[in-house]
Amino acid sequence: MIRSMLAALAACLLSLTAPQAHAQLNVGDVAPDFTAQAALGGKPFRFSLTEALKSGPVVLYFFPKAFTQGCTIEANRFAEAHDEYASLGATVIGMSGDDIETLRRFSVSECRDKFAVAADAGGKVMQAYKATMPNVVTYARRISYVIGPDRRISYAFASGSPDDHVPNTLAAVRALKQAKPSH
């Protein structure tokens, strides 16, 4: 029993750190619509992709587990870049399989009240975005999407490292803004 539990734990840990070579949605694909329980500054609300896209592009990033080292680093970096995303008209939303109570705390301490994080406890949104860990649908791979106001994926990036998600999605949002200047 203990041996099988250790094997399962090792497999889970390996999947959290393994290189990301799995399929994802492609540029040009229509982003699956969703609404989800979310938190911003510790306050719960319903996040709607359709509603958020009315204001401009959405940066949707999936992360494995709140309060883990890589996910904390990534959330801190998105928080630090929040004003730049906002100046480009973009909304940032993080999503994981964590419960909403965990994400309420995470939205305050690690997202620094700057952007929302959403709960996908059943993994349905993660599955729709091809963002689940292999064989563990309740954990997300670290993957970021930029979704244009037309609901099309304009950028997708998967990497187990939190290092390049913010600079890459910022560059993609800038490129999207330049391709479709506002009037």
Explain what this protein looks like in three dimensions.
The chain has 183 residues and is α+β, with helices and mostly antiparallel strands. It has a single domain, classed as Glutaredoxin. It has seven helices and nine strands. Strands 2-1-5-4-3-8-9 form a seven-stranded mixed beta sheet. The longest helix is centred in the N-terminal third of the chain and has 16 residues. The N terminus is likely disordered.
How would you summarize what this structure contains?
It is built from 7 helices and 9 strands. It has 183 residues and is α+β, with helices and mostly antiparallel strands. The strands form 2 sheets. It has a 7-stranded mixed β-sheet with strand order 2-1-5-4-3-8-9. A two-stranded antiparallel sheet has the order 6-7.
Major sheet, described briefly?
7 strands, mixed
CATH top level is Alpha Beta
Mean pLDDT over all positions: 88
CATH-defined superfamily: Glutaredoxin
| Beta-strand residue fraction | 15-25%
Please identify, by name, the CATH architecture: 3-Layer(aba) Sandwich
Number of helices: 7
**What is the general shape?**
globular
Task: Quickly list its features.
Glutaredoxin; 38% helix; 183 residues; seven-stranded mixed β-sheet; 7 helices; alpha+beta
